[in-house]
Amino acid sequence: MKKQVLVVALIVALVALFASCTTFSMDGLAYGDLKGTALGDFSVEVVCTEWLGTSGGANIANITQGAGKEAVAAAVQAEIDALGGTGAINVTVEQKATTMQVILNRVSGGIYAPETIVVSGTVVK
Q1: What is this structure's pTM?
Q2: In which domain, by residue range, is 57 found?
Q3: 64-87: pLDDT as tens digits
Q4: Is 14 part of any domain?
Q5: Total count of domains within the chain
Q6: Angle made by CA atoms 102, 107, 113, in degrees to the nearest 5
Q7: pLDDT category, 98, cuts 50, 70, 90?
């Protein structure tokens, strides 16, 4: 009987773990000088390390609050520079946590909270 309860509890815990991936998305944003014609589209994936919270979600203490914002701005600016543009339109920012990032967060007891940010859009000049 105890073995069956343990197996059921383990299955419930695994289902909860794998179902707990989170995603947050913002669409239609713009960055920089928005004049002119489209030079090309981009899509970049940035992994951010945050602390004391949940992966891809809220943090208890804002000791790493600007990490994601700075990483997104740097990624967009790098794409603008690479294509010789002056800005980016139709920018989409999707903040999420992969299954492995959620597992690492749970194993660390919420101390290590990694997340993945996918940034896409169109560079203009």
Answers
A1: 0.70
A2: 21-124
A3: 555 677 888 889 999 999 999 988
A4: no
A5: 1
A6: 45
A7: confident
